[in-house]
Amino acid sequence: QVQLQESGPGLVKPSQTLSLSCTVSGGSISSGGYYWSWVRQYPGKGLEWIGYIFYTGSTYYTPSLKSRITISLDTSKNQFSLKLTSVTAADTAIYYCAREGGWSGVGFDPWGQGTLVTVSS
Amino acid sequence: EIVLTQSPDTLSLSPGERATLSCRASQSVSNYLAWYQQKPGQAPRLLIYDANKRATGIPARFSGSGSGTDFTLIISSLEPEDFAVYYCQQRSNWPPQFTFGPGTKVEI
User: Fold this and answer.
1) A114 touches chain B (CB under 8 A)
2) Do B49 and A46 make contact, defined as CB atoms within 8 angstroms?
3) Which of A5, A53, B5, B14 minimizes the number of CB atoms within 10 Å of its CB?
């Protein structure tokens, strides 16, 4: 079965770039019509979808973050990555990577375990 | 952007009781709706996709219904492990975008 695992620094300084990777195991990131996504959650709060990359490489980002976000695909490593520039304390959150069903149906499954990223000097 | 609202904010019930959770979309999402369960310290778990289809391994006590703008998640008889926060999520048609509802907490 497909599994996802986030990796990256847990602490980022203000104004710097947050960089996370999501490694996919148990299946190819290039197969099927899935939306490989990033979702974040402020501690104790709700969920916010922030963007996806389709298996073809096309991307879509939530409008509020569009100017700061890049999601890319590395098929050789079976990974996709998130870069969020000019971070502030407001970007402190748990970041999840997840696969959205696309052609197979609406819904994010599976999810990574999540990684807490704190923005602080 | 399509906005999802969930009601109630909190549902206080006892094991064995029936839970009814609602999710309303600001405009029609057809059947492009999913439900999740989240427990503290864990990632969300997909329960229902396409409004009414149970995800793999989800017990039959969970059921989803609705289409258009009004959706319902029913837990027919609460088990102790069902006390958690539940989110709905929609996918808009084109280009695909996703939003989550604010969540309903089901507490003992």
Assistant:
1) yes
2) no
3) B14
The beta-carbon neighbor of B95 closest among A60, A100, A109 is A60
When pLDDT is cut at 50, 70 and 90, the band that residue B35 belongs to is very high
CB contact under 8 A, B102 and A100: no
Task: Quickly state the pLDDT bin for A31 (edges 50, 70, 90).
Answer: confident
pLDDT at A89: 96
Q: Distance between CA B69 and CA B33 in Å, rounded?
A: 10
Q: How far is the alpha carbon of B77 from chain A, nearest alpha carbon, in Å?
A: 24
Facing A60 at nearest CB: one of B31, B32, B96: B96
Res. A33 pLDDT band, cuts 50 70 90: confident
Look at residues B73, B89, B80 and name the one whose alpha carbon lies nearest to residue B19.
Answer: B73
Tokens representing B42 are 């864990």
| More confident call, A102 vs A61 | A61
Decide: B32 and A106 in contact? Cβ < 8 Å: yes
Q: CB within 8 A of B43, min separation 6: which ones?
A: A96, A98, A111, A112, A113, A114
Separation in Å, CA of A16 to nearest CA in chain B: 26
Distance of CA B43 to the CA centre of its chain: 15
* A6 close to B (CB below 8 A): no
